[in-house]
Amino acid sequence: MKKLVAMALALAMTTALAACGSGAASSSSAPAGDASAPAASSEAAAADSGSEIEPVTLTIYSPGNENSVPTKTIIKYAELVKEASNGAITLDVHHSNELGNDAEAIESTRMGTIDIIFAGTSGFTSFYEKAKVLDLPFLFDSAEEAYDVVNSDVGEKIFADFPQVGLIFLSEGDNGMRQISTTNKPVHTAADVKGLKLRVPTSQMYLDCWETLGATPIALALNELPIALSNGTAEGQDNATYHLVANATYDSIKYFSNINYMWMGCTMAVNALTWDKLPEATRKVLKEQATVAAKYSFDTIAEDNVTATKTLQDAGVEFDTDPDIQSFKDALGGTEFYKRYAEEKWYDQSLIDEILAYNK
Q1: Alpha carbon distance 119, 104 (integer Å)
Q2: Distances from the Cα of 36 to the Cα of 31, 42, 43, 71, angstroms
Q3: Contact call for residues 168 and 291 (beta carbons, < 8 A)
Q4: Residue 202 — pLDDT band, cuts 50, 70, 90?
Q5: How far apart are the first and last CA of the chain?
Q6: Taking CA 288 as the corner, what is the angle to CA 165 and CA 85, rounded to the nearest 5 degrees?
Q7: Which residues touch 136 (CB under 8 Å, ≥6 apart)?
Q8: What is the pTM assigned to this prediction?
Q9: What's the chain look like in SS3?
Q10: Which candidate, 96, 91, 56, 63, places its Cα nearest to that of 77?
Q11: pLDDT (tens digit per residue) in 239-280
Q12: CA 69 to CA 71: how far, in whole Å?
């Protein structure tokens, strides 16, 4: 029965993993309380600078399908930009693998075939290692904190060298906080993951984290996960709440723990040569509204997490909403864990310190 529910919900909430690693269906607009301020901001921008902006059409792309959060975000961004520019700036929206997967689309944006890309931050790290700092565990306490940090001067510092790889950073959107869910026992403290066979993405940092915590991490492709959970090859997974429902990977899951151990982002970037050719007034609108669109992605995922939690609870999954997060941090050795990467090119202790101090 769970499987039938999972398949139905996957059709409604599914998203191509190519977009920001994965995504989920969401409501068509951000919460009313958040939407009012951007609207006013857009109207003001239109009144102040719309008449100065030259007409231009730019291509924007996210690989996910029309129900994915990244695609909903770029559609919202196109609306915001059109309004703020009095219709002068048109964003030609493409999605659903029309222009390639994450890696292909990011490369096309670097080349200028695509003007603007919104894709998983991890997809940029193969050629822009400085962004790997965002993969460190327990860097942020919540998605709300992540938004504040990555869309501040700190985010600008992280992506300051983007022009060297043919891109300009616009904003950082959300792809969820990673949690832990299991088939055989609840997880409340770090001691509960000792020996746990946990599926993780094929990333060295994820493997390092869970090995240090005493688990037995297993790197598997997402499409292999449901079978692995059902036959005991894996006893749990680390993933964002809404991802479990969107990707239908919860059929065997009995316990869920909100440990907020790692945040995932989506990066909005524009081709550097395209950017250089744009007038300042156009750049101003694109930059300002990119941050508004980023907030929309955070708000949308927050809504999706609420819906997904209800779906999981209805399926019999038990939630621990107040686990001993400090025990996980202590088991990693606190921020000393980060220093294992100190010799890598992307590592910047001063930047990490600034992130950790933000909003504290």
Answers
A1: 11
A2: 9, 10, 11, 21
A3: no
A4: confident
A5: 45
A6: 110
A7: 205, 262, 338, 352
A8: 0.86
A9: CHHHHHHHHHHHHCCCCCCCCCCCCCCCCCCHHHHHHHHHHHHHHHHHHHHHCCCEEEEEECCCCCCCHHHHHHHHHHHHHHHHCCCCEEEEEECCCCCCCHHHHHHHHHHCCCCEEEEEHHHHCCCCHHHHHHHCCCCCCCHHHHHHHHCCHHHHHHCCCHHHHCEEEEEEEEEEEEEEEECCCCCCCHHHHCCCEEEECCCHHHHHHHHHCCCEEEECCHHHHHHHHHHCCCCEEEECHHHHHHCCCCCCCCEEEEEEEEEEEEEEEEEHHHHHHCCHHHHHHHHHHHHHHHHHHHHHHHHHHHHHHHHHHHCCCEEECCCCHHHHHHHHCHHHHHHHHCCCCCCCHHHHHHHHHCCC
A10: 91
A11: 999 999 999 999 999 999 999 999 999 999 999 999 999 999
A12: 5
CA separation for the pair 19, 69 (Å, rounded): 9
Q: Exposed (0-12), middle (13-18) or buried (19+): which is 234, by Cβ within 10 Å?
A: buried
State the chain's maximal CA–CA distance in angstroms. Answer: 63
Q: Rounded distance, CA 268 to CA 119, Å?
A: 7
Token pair in block for residue 110: 């670097």
Residue type, 352: I
Model confidence at 52, pLDDT cuts 50, 70, 90, reads: confident
